[in-house]
Here is the input.
Amino acid sequence: MRRLEILDGMRGYFLVFMMLNHLTFAGGYLLVKINHGELGYVQDAQGFVFLSGLLVGMVYTGRMKKQGYAAGAQKVRKRAFELYRYAIGSIATVVVLALLMKGSQTYWEPWLWELSQPDPVFAGAAALLLYQPTYMDILPQYILYLLVSPPLIWLCMTGRWRTVVAVSALLWVAVQVGLDYPLGDGVRSFLAWLYDGDLFRTAFNIFAWQVVFMSGLIIGALTATGQIDWKKAMDPRRSVWAWTAFGGVLIFMAMRLGFTFNVMPEDMAKQVAGLDNRVDFSFIYLVNFIATGYLVAWTIMAGPRSENAMVRTLGNGLSWLFSLSFLRLLGRHSLQVYTFHVILVYLLKVFEHHHGPFTELGKTAIALAAVASLSIPALYRERKNFFGKRQAEAKA
Here is the structure.
């Protein structure tokens, strides 16, 4: 199993849980509770953004090594424009459906907000990625990160990756102490001056969440240039950091379950709640992500070579999971699958409005069918690519 195939499997895994988490039913549903997000503060969006940065670092570092900086940067910009087309396409599809279907404001207004109305100003704000409907907010930040990536990849390639680490860390710290508020308030004030309405809506603070993408980009670039010796870094005989990460994961799991079952002392709950800010990717999310990410990576890479039978079993188990053909299929076409899942989630909301409420069995069946349907755009792309190659070979 090649390294990139494992990463495809991981992307597919996060796409599956995005679908389960984004589905909404009246009264909720039990299947969504079988979820890694219930056991800590590591969620699908974090994994998806990190893996995107990792692959950008690995793939485009290779392009720059072979073709030079300008050619590699052009490829990155081309990819960013491709993502932009899909982002706008998904928004346009749902907005057009909202205008065509009677009563759509009843079930989509809480997700589309002002875009549920035929207002060209808000449509323009959406086209500029300023106004982002619910579940359509990952691609805009990914596009912005791609646009600034080329010089950062070059810095990592040329041994100056510490500069990228320092800038990324400083931006994250600046958000945690509120230094981004003047900029955000200034943007909102300017937009309010242009038009009477809140034209700026997003679920992620790009200056905070960049630490997830950039950490992936740095690791990917260093991997592509051979600046990281993974066999040495993930030596099964040196497990102290893995056990430390495991301890950290247990701590965050206890915190999360303490809130879930309402058994955390009141003073402790207040202190923890002050550190819990998903939009700004606060301390809890960052540290829990680092611990979990390192533990999973070590278990996959070093686990199968460990002398500990349980660790070997876990390592082989995770490798098997992320090697499942269904997950790798989704991961190979993650952009198309992600866009498909957004539109499907919106359509299932319509379906529930007209045919619900559903029983627990019905909700589970719909959720499993929705997960299975993620293969539709992926299989279509596989078939298209296959026949495209056959035609190219025939012409040659």
